[in-house]
Structures are given as structure tokens and as C-alpha cells.
Design a protein that fits this description.
Elements: H1 2-20, H2 33-37, H3 43-57, E1 64-65, H4 77-89, H5 106-116, E2 127-130, H6 133-144, E3 150-154, H7 158-167, E4 183-187, E5 206-210, H8 222-235, E6 238-242, E7 267-272, H9 274-277, E8 285-288, H10 301-312, H11 318-327, H12 330-356, E9 360-363, E10 369-373, H13 379-390, E11 392-393, E12 395-396, E13 407-411, H14 416-426
Parallel strand pairs: 1-11, 3-4, 3-5, 5-6, 6-7
Antiparallel strand pairs: 2-8, 7-8, 9-10, 10-13, 12-13
Helix pairs in contact: 4-11, 5-11, 6-7, 6-10, 12-14
Length: 430
């Protein structure tokens, strides 16, 4: 895998070199100015580049990745078997299927509602099946357009900001910290229980909110989410709620924004099978757009989102949707949740390890990530230190926003063997 990634990076460097030295023919088409505003190094390619350099320096080292949040456990047997059988049926006249509904398989949409939104007022016609949460995030940005103001948690997943920049919502870079001028950053730290002070938060059209949060692992409480919904109602804002890690909630924290009264009038929810069922490579997710969510002129947002889906998307893979349906069967869902429990046990090992070192640890109870504080240190310095001393890849908190400085995100997505080995190595840090 590392060798393949190195080849890709080498090829990219060659292309950039050729373009900047004039060895390529230039068109008369100007570069999209919004893409020019993006910060040079996206977080995860930067981590990969540093990992490759480390491997060159220590070719015999066994590097353990606790960085990129990619699942590692095999799919549940019933799920894999269902997809395999579906694929074989495609080779027969009776079993072949072509295009499906752009909005997704009706049975799958119904199963999502009945299994994951049971007791809530979500309807299957409000569920749009997709090829993953990150893809849906870009489609929602396309829906919202370039003339909206946005707010994001700080720290938060970099994709919210980058997609906003590409859409032209960001303005210019404000200062050396990397903040964009038109984006409102809602600080979420231990001092405010990882929930923004809404009394000091300026009104924006759109609020991106992730719970359980990536990277901090904090799941917003019912009271906190009620405050957020009330704030959106008062300000006439739309909440884009990322629930990709909802399956990891272990306490009474809501798993869906639609558990909160009034949320159907102000919130779109995006979620995924990736971290719940190990579908990071299969690619399957969904977005819920309630019928009550209206624009300023009273037009239903769901109609426009349906148009976006039908225009820019031909529907999720039939094979992936068959797998999703198997995930939500009684047997499949039990096995899916057993995988979630496996990763949660990994988290506990990591929490105990960092705590034993006297470090302050956050997250870990409602998410597959541990958010570790290294006070007075720069995140990239800590990244390099951990990598050099233990051959372990982590993620520097600064990559998730200015408030992430001094923190590290550590992923529990790994085999039990690798987590135990990483724990053993980490104990040598201090």
C-alpha cells in the first residue's frame, strides 16, 4: 500500500513540476480562483508523505497506523455473502439489474428508517441513499450554493471547510493561522465542554455540526443539541448534521438530530455505513432532508436536493445497496454492532494507555477516536516525536483547526494485535 501511494505522490510531483516549468501546453482557461484559495497541504496527504519518508529512513520498522480513520476488520459474513450472491446474479438474465432509483433502493430506504430512525418521524421518502457521507457533503454544498455564510466547529473535519472554499463561501485567508475570512469558527474545547458558546456566535446561514465529533470524540448532549436547534430556529439557519459516528454512542446522547424537537424544520442529516459497518471501501451512505425544511420563500429544500441527486448522481451501486440492506437485517445488524464493540474495546485500551502516562484524554466513550492533550507542544512536533520514537502514525490536532493545536487524534481502527503493540510502544514515550 505504501509503495502504491509513493508512486502516486511521485507522479503528482512530476505533473506539478512539468506544469510549473512550462513543459505542458497551457490553455487559455484560468484556474478556478476558489481552488487557488485552498491551503497547500491537505492533512492526510501530508501525513502520508511524512510516513513514506519515515519508512525510507527506517526500512525495517513495523509502522503502526493510528492515523487515518479507516476501518480494518473484515465485513460480517452475511453482508459479504449477500453482495457476492448479488454480483453473481448480475451474470444471469433473471438477476441482472441496471440503473436503480437515484434516491436509492426503496427497501433499503425503508430499512434505514425502521432500524436507525425507529420512533422518530423520518419518512423513507426523505432518505437519499448515496456513495458515502463525504460525497453527500459536496452535494449539500452544491445545493446551498456560493452565496451563503457558514459556521463550523473548531476543531472539526477539514472537509467542511475545504468544500466551502471550493464553493466560494469562504472569502480569503484571514491570517497565518489558516482561518478563512467568511467562515465563522465555533471554538469547542474542554473549557466549554466541546460545545460552542452560542450567545457569542454570530448568525450564519449554515451550521456544520458533527456529533460524535471528529476529531474530539465528544457526543453532544440532548440539552446541547436543543440549544443548537433553538439557535438555528431563531436565526433562520440550516444545520448540516454529520452523524457518521452515531453507532458508537454509548450513553444517553442523541444518535440523530431528529431526536430533538423542532429539528425537522432546520436540519439536514448526513450519515454513512463506513464506520458503522466497515464500508469505507464499499461506499454507501445516506442523507435525510425533512419535508418541513423550507427556504426563505417557503419552497421545500427536499425538492431541490432531489434535483441535485437526479442531476449529478446516478444512484449508489446496486451491489453496495444489497450489502447495506443485509447490514440492517436482524442477523446482519447484530454482527455490524459487534464490529463497533470491537473498536470500542480498542479505544478503551488506548485511553488507559495515555492516561497511564499522565496525559489528559478526551473522547473514547462515544467515538472510535481518542483526543490527547500535549500542553505547550506543537501538534506536528508531537506527531514527529511519536513517529520517531515508536513508529506509530497519529494525526496532529492542528489539522482540524486552530483550536486543535497541542492535541493529537489517535484512531482505534486497527486489529487488536496492532492496538496492543501500539499501547506497549506508547508507554515508552514518557
Amino acid at each position: 500500500m505504501c509503495k502504491e501511494n509513493k508512486l502516486l505522490l511521485d507522479e503528482l510531483e512530476k505533473q506539478i513540476h512539468a506544469a510549473t516549468t512550462g513543459n505542458y501546453y497551457s490553455t487559455r482557461v484560468a484556474r478556478n480562483p476558489n481552488l487557488e484559495k485552498l491551503q497547500t497541504n491537505y492533512l492526510f496527504p501530508e501525513i502520508l508523505e511524512r510516513e513514506l519518508k519515515h519508512v525510507e529512513k527506517y526500512p525495517n520498522a513495523k509502522v503502526i497506523s493510528l492515523g487515518v480513520g479507516d476501518t480494518t476488520q473484515p465485513l460480517p459474513q452475511p453482508v459479504a455473502l449477500t453482495m457476492s450472491n448479488y454480483a453473481r446474479c448480475l451474470s444471469t438474465p433473471q438477476g441482472y439489474t441496471g440503473y436503480g432509483l437515484e434516491q436509492g433502493n426503496k427497501e433499503l430506504r425503508r430499512a434505514i428508517v425502521e432500524t436507525l430512525y425507529k420512533g422518530l418521524s423520518v419518512e423513507e421518502t426523505e432518505v437519499f441513499v448515496s456513495d458515502g457521507a463525504q460525497c453527500d457533503l459536496s452535494r449539500v454544498q452544491l445545493l446551498l450554493g456560493s452565496n451563503v455564510s457558514i459556521a463550523v466547529q473548531d476543531p472539526s473535519f477539514p472537509g467542511y471547510i475545504d468544500s466551502s472554499v471550493i464553493m466560494g463561501q469562504s472569502g480569503d485567508l484571514k491570517n497565518e493561522s489558516g482561518r478563512y475570512g467568511n467562515i465563522k469558527y465555533m471554538k469547542c474545547s474542554p473549557e466549554n465542554d466541546f460545545f460552542p458558546d452560542l450567545s457569542k456566535t454570530a448568525r450564519t446561514d449554515v451550521i456544520f455540526f458533527c456529533s460524535p465529533n471528529n476529531p474530539t470524540g465528544h457526543a453532544a448532549s440532548r440539552q446541547q443539541l436543543q440549544q443548537l436547534v433553538d439557535f438555528a430556529q431563531v436565526n433562520g439557519s440550516i444545520i448540516v448534521y454529520d452523524a457518521a459516528y452515531a453507532a458508537y454512542v454509548s450513553d444517553s446522547s442523541p444518535k440523530s438530530i431528529y431526536e430533538i424537537p423542532g429539528s425537522r424544520k432546520v436540519a439536514i442529516e448526513i450519515s454513512s455505513f463506513s464506520k458503522m459497518a466497515g464500508f469505507t471501501g464499499v461506499r454507501l451512505g445516506w442523507t435525510v432532508v425533512p419535508k418541513e425544511l423550507l427556504y426563505l420563500n417557503g419552497f421545500p429544500v427536499i425538492h431541490d436536493y432531489n434535483r441535485i441527486i437526479c442531476t449529478s448522481f446516478n444512484g449508489a451501486s446496486n451491489i453496495a445497496q444489497a450489502g447495506g440492506l443485509a447490514c440492517l437485517s436482524r442477523e446482519g445488524f447484530q454482527e455490524v454492532m459487534s464490529k463497533v464493540e470491537y473498536y470500542k474495546e480498542n479505544v478503551k485500551i488506548l485511553v488507559d494507555t495515555f492516561t497511564s502516562l499522565g496525559l489528559r484524554v478526551y473522547g473514547g466513550s462515544n467515538a472510535p477516536y481518542v483526543w490527547v492533550h500535549f500542553p505547550g507542544s506543537k501538534s506536528w512536533d508531537v506527531f514527529n516525536w511519536i513517529l520517531e520514537k515508536t513508529h506509530i502514525i497519529t494525526v496532529p490536532g492542528i489539522g482540524f483547526g486552530p483550536s486543535g493545536e497541542g492535541y493529537m487524534r489517535v484512531s482505534a481502527f486497527g486489529s487488536r494485535e496492532s492496538i496492543l503493540e501500539a499501547s506497549k510502544r506508547l508507554t515508552t514515550l514518557l
